[in-house]
């Protein structure tokens, strides 16, 4: 364990439990060592997975970094806290794995990214799907002309969340809390991977790659943010990226991204690392890929110079989408006749939404263009760089 990299985890409950298990996996391999946990209330012995030892626990993030000698901080805390915690780590020379979305606004994102760069530390943004080996494989297929000239990229996410999901934390389902941006919507948090992956496969990763963004934001649940939404990104390359998402699916299924070419298409189920290639004059071909863990990639980058997979600037285009959603009018409430409550599951569903989500990814059209009776005209935001 002497060569294991000491790590502090900020936010070990909720999604942070996934990070705890991942840290344990890497600790078993001798790669990292969990030195500390930052939580407002310490984890109990029952909450701490076996095999992690007895990490120091404190609610004071900066003091914990100092006392443990941490080299990496994994930050999985409420969205509005990301920038300040990242900068707290950066000022101490501690490298960072920052959970997605990296910030609730483009301004906060730039403050984080610029501060990290100035401090000379490394930051990895936690879009795990971008660690899939399918991503470079798909880029190679595109560059080799397997599906002809690239036309555009669609993304589809039809998920379900019970009403209880929006009571999991004070900031859940909020656009703002106590005057601070949160922007916890379908496209910006639970299905943010669909947006980031679609942008990445379309070659639109940096802020300057985005020229305009159209948004349609709606909600069936009694929340501030959107739970049923779509976005179309106009890119500098002239190829649109359209992502449709809902947390009110009738039959929830794995999200996917589809790359459209003039002579075929590539579908990527990013949670499964599975790819389907369909092209003219060929039968369908299916591939499965491995995945590089982003924390392990960060450690490898620090120890032997391996390329970092998701540095902040490669999420600039995604953050432009977050900013467009932040600046858009508050999501429109769907009329009562447009959704139903499933009593057994205590969740709201929007009849027909599964087909609309798929059609948007298929045709690169927005809900309003697909004839959804409850859709409003898209709001367009021109993007300045």
UniProtKB/TrEMBL annotation:
UniProt-listed Pfam families: GFO_IDH_MocA, GFO_IDH_MocA_C3
Keywords tagged on the record: Oxidoreductase
Domain annotation Gfo/Idh/MocA-like oxidoreductase N-terminal: ranges: 7-127
SUPFAM superfamilies: Glyceraldehyde-3-phosphate dehydrogenase-like, C-terminal domain (SSF55347), NAD(P)-binding Rossmann-fold domains (SSF51735)
GO molecular function (one): oxidoreductase activity
The GFO/IDH/MocA-like oxidoreductase domain, residue ranges: 137-266
Protein name (database record): Gfo/Idh/MocA family oxidoreductase
Lineage, uppermost ranks: Bacteria, Bacillati, Actinomycetota, Actinomycetes, Kitasatosporales
